[in-house]
Write a structure and sequence with these properties.
It is a single chain. The chain has 887 residues and is α+β, with helices and mostly antiparallel strands. 52% of the residues lie in helices and 11% in strands. The chain contains 25 helices and 17 strands. Strands 2, 3, 5, 8, 10, 13 and 14 form a 7-stranded antiparallel β-sheet that branches. 40% of the residues are buried.
């Protein structure tokens, strides 16, 4: 940052970097694309199909490319109302997107553009479903030409209309053609060349202007205008353009959020990166020579957690296998990064590399599936990953064998090494090895425990013999935070902040339960990093010095807490609260006078960051319009695909406030009722048109016209909170009195919940599940997962980590597991207290264990590819040798 360069060089570097970015948007990112228009190619006929409340039309079609941008539908006449509704369904009749379109601006008859922006699978059959939206309209038909490509059937009133096709154009997003791409790249390169030539001529004529400046100043000169342009543009889009919402509350809130984000950006760009005389800096405490390797280790740890998170979203075995093997590969890469030059480049490794590559290629050729086999590509990919694991793992095994031989040789010859090179196995390591052995012996058909034991024992041995192990917990904390930042970027680009169906934001996961686990882990790490910065600053130094030292940790903590709030999950908020309190109690036991200061700064971080996090998560994914949805994702189909930026089914301030108040605080703020098809409703939220599209007397009852939730009738896009809140939330005050009431609520919650037990109802039946598992516990465990519930259903897992381990592997193994966690937690506190002034990041051990232990009470979080398990096993690394315990 302090390196000196000339102003001419600075300008040239800036031009070249911006040119490279512009070229990359064309290739390989291919952000800009062409549109391919396809139609059945028939003649437009006078025949029509009527669509109203009682009659839908369905057009089957086959996709040509992988991105359906829009569909142009020929509407001959709007008989009643003003909206048409078009949905896309797949071959399993699952609704992928649903779009109401206002036809008031079209001069009918005409083609009405229906924006889609959804990813599809080329060559697969899909269905266009035409429905009424408090309307009645006529769709024009076309005939089918001779010898056409495949044209799907058209159905009306559930009967096929032979020889006819809905008059439509299917518009696909396709990569920009090679010729256009080359032309655009050539134009960009020419502009860059012209600019460089111009500045060269300028500085030749005025060499005195070619002064010196630092790289840090160059970054400020470039980044400050970019930051200002980005956020000023967004603020103008919010108001006065009102592209995202027209309501004053949302406009004001979004503007505040953007101001906060812009302020954070400006401070990040312009603050002086200098070592403070007070406080701690985890980054500056790492030697310069070690930083590149440690950064790579942080990234590899982050990627291992990324694929563990992918595993949690996968629903099929083959995808589980792929995520599992990718995760293991990145963990092995973490081990390889601990190698010295001699450990990496030697004759045994070269021999292994040559032999394993030849054997691996041969093995792949023999065992790969043919293209005619089902899912051949996925199985072959899994096979490749398995071979890569064997090849990379071989280097780790060779290094461990060589190290073991060297240690034996030194002991036999009585060679005494340097004190820093010595590692002695700890009592905790022995306890952990006993537990791992128990997992293997009592595996009961489960092989993930074997894989977990092998992978992490190898990692522990590598860490113990690694000279940079003193930085392990700094690397681990950095890796966990890098993973959160990667997840945050993915969320901002690809996860819509939807107000319905549930309105609970699941971040990068398909359920808020897994999100709660993940965020409690990240909150624990962020708390440790923030607390360490706070307690290192003397209280007399003031808030300004504290902010300069800890601003990154403050923002990080505030952002994580904000996303936990977005889940509107009691589990997430309670898990984070307990974890944070536990970490604070340990900290306060050493720094007794810092409690109020820490709590106040944490609260301020959450309050300040919340508007910014909310605003970016609401706006950015809508602009990008490349949303990711999961198979069991409950996001409303009305905001799937490239939904309009001002779609009122996105999350808004009013909707979120009402949802949070009801779900978390148990307070009702009234129903939220703000429809997407605003021209169908008046200012009081009552429908202007009835379900048949007639504009009649508005005095009819709202409920009688089915104008409540959009789920009441398929043609109604009105919104309120009905049916969104979990049944248990209605029972915070009292248990229902009659047997009939209890039976109804029990059926709503799955049919097995004990409605006489408030705790069972508030926990969504977990107490019943615990009891069912407890009845079947034994000493050796079970081959199959699942316990029988009172209603005859099978609970796939126990929703409790400790119960699950005892059920899977036997009660003794379950007890041993609890002992391991308690021992590790005690050691974590002891190590922190010994080293709080010199290495406060060691509090991370206790924090990760507490996050895992509490999450394990209500969920099953101990499994090879659960992110919490990966973090826990990585946190154990330093406890496995005495040198860490004796610090």
């Amino acid at each position: 940052m302090r390196r000196i360069i000339t102003r001419k060089t600075a300008i040239e570097v800036t031009i070249l970097l911006l040119t490279l970015i512009c070229i990359m948007t064309i290739w390989p990112l291919r952000i800009f694309a062409d549109t391919f228009e396809y139609s059945a190619g028939g003649n437009l006929l006078e025949e029509t199909v009527t669509v109203n409340l009682e009659n839908n039309a369905v057009q089957k079609f086959v996709t040509r490319f992988d991105r359906l941008r829009s569909v142009d539908v020929y509407v001959s006449e709007m008989l009643n109302g003003r909206y048409i509704s078009v949905a896309v369904r797949n071959e399993n009749n699952e609704e992928l997107v649903k779009v109401p379109v206002d036809t008031a601006d079209y001069q009918l008859p005409a083609y009405v553009n229906v924006p889609m922006e959804i990813d599809v699978e080329p060559g697969k059959e899909y269905y266009l479903l035409f429905e009424s939206c408090r309307s009645k309209y006529m769709l024009s038909l076309e005939d089918i030409p001779e010898n056409p490509e495949y044209v799907g059937s058209l159905y009306s009133r559930w009967a096929e209309i032979p020889g006819r096709h809905a008059a439509c154009y299917y518009n696909y997003k396709v990569p920009m053609s090679r010729s256009r791409s080359i032309k655009c790249i050539g134009i960009i390169a020419a502009i860059a060349f012209a600019l460089i030539l111009a500045e060269t001529i300028y500085f030749r004529k005025k060499p005195e202007k070619n002064t010196l400046l630092t790289i840090g100043k160059l970054i400020k000169y470039v980044a400050n205008p970019l930051n200002a342009i980005v956020f000023l543009t967004l603020m103008i889009m919010v108001f006065p353009l009102k592209l995202f919402d027209a309501r004053a509350t949302d406009i004001i809130f979004y503007e505040i959020g953007l101001i906060i984000c812009a302020g954070i950006g400006f401070y990040a760009i312009n603050h002086n990166v200098v070592k403070q005389n007070v406080g701690v800096s985890f980054w500056q405490s790492i030697d310069n020579a070690d930083r590149p390797r440690d950064c790579l280790m942080m990234f590899s740890i982050a990627m291992s957690l990324w694929y563990a998170s992918c595993y949690m979203n996968d629903l099929y075995d083959i995808y589980h296998t792929l995520s599992e093997r990718r995760m293991v590969i990145w963990l092995i890469i973490t081990m390889l990064l601990t190698f010295t030059f001699r450990e990496a480049f030697n004759i045994p490794n070269l021999v292994w590399l040559a032999a394993s590559l030849v054997a691996g290629i041969r093995y792949y050729d023999v065992h790969r599936l043919a293209e005619t086999e089902k899912e051949y590509d996925l199985h072959n990919m899994a096979l490749k990953y398995g071979i890569i694991i064997v090849i990379l793992g071989g280097f780790v095994v060779i290094s461990l064998v060589r190290r073991a031989i060297a240690l034996i040789r030194k002991k036999a010859l009585r060679i005494i090494g340097h004190e820093e090179d010595r590692t002695t196995i700890s009592a905790f390591a022995i306890l952990l090895l006993v537990f791992m052995a128990a997992l293997i012996i009592f595996r009961n058909t489960r092989w993930w425990g074997v894989a977990l034991s092998v992978v992490f024992v190898c990692l522990y041995l590598r860490i113990a013999g690694w000279k940079g192990r003193k930085n392990w917990y700094k690397v681990l904390a950095g890796g966990l935070m890098v993973n959160f930042l990667l997840s945050l970027v993915f969320s901002l680009l690809h996860r819509y902040f939807a107000g319905f169906v549930s309105g609970r934001f699941a971040f990068i996961f398909h359920t808020v339960t897994v999100t709660a686990e993940y965020l409690s882990l990240m909150a624990a790490v962020a708390t440790v990093m923030l607390v360490a910065k706070i307690v290192a600053i003397p209280r007399k130094m003031g808030i300004v010095v504290l902010f300069k030292s800890a601003w990154k940790e403050i923002v990080l903590f505030g952002w994580i807490i904000s996303y936990a709030i977005f889940t509107v999950s009691r589990t997430a908020i309670l898990a984070i609260a307990v974890t944070v309190i536990a970490v604070l109690l340990v900290t306060v036991s050493v720094h007794k006078k810092q409690f109020i200061r820490i709590v106040a700064l944490m609260a301020a971080a959450a309050i300040i960051c919340f508007p910014g996090a909310f605003t970016l998560q609401r706006l950015i994914p809508a602009i990008v319009a490349k949303p990711t949805f999961y198979v069991i994702d409950d996001t409303d189909v009305l905001v799937r695909g490239g939904a309009d930026w001002d779609n009122t089914n996105f999350m808004c301030v009013e909707r979120f406030a009402g949802l949070f108040a009801e779900k978390i605080l148990g307070v009702s703020l009234g129903d939220y009722n703000y429809p997407i098809d605003v021209n169908n409703y008046d200012s009081e939220g009552k429908p202007i048109y009835d379900n048949y599209g007639f504009n009649g007397d508005k005095s009819f009852e709202f409920e009688e016209q089915n104008s409540g939730s959009s789920q009441d009738t398929p043609d109604d896009q009105g919104r309120n909170d009905e049916g969104v809140t979990a049944p248990a939330d209605r029972l915070l005050v009292a248990i229902p009195g009659t047997e009939a009431e209890r039976h109804i609520i029990s059926e709503e919650m799955g049919g097995y919940v004990d409605t006489t037990d408030r705790l069972d109802m508030l926990s969504n039946g977990r107490i019943t599940i615990f009891k069912s598992y407890a009845k079947e516990l034994n000493l050796t465990g079970h081959d199959e997962m699942g316990a029988l519930l009172p209603n005859g259903e099978i609970a796939v897992h126990a929703h409790n980590t400790y119960m699950q381990v005892a059920y899977d592997n036997g009660v003794p193994v379950g007890i041993l597991f609890i002992v391991v966690l308690i021992t590790a937690a005690v050691l974590g506190v002891s190590i922190y207290k010994k080293n709080h002034s010199t290495n406060p990041i060691l509090l991370l051990i206790f924090a990760v264990i507490m996050a895992f232990a509490f999450a394990g009470i209500s969920e099953w979080v101990f499994q090879l590819c659960n992110p919490m398990t990966v973090a826990l096993m990585l946190a154990f690394a330093g406890l496995t040798y005495k040198e860490t315990l004796n610090k």
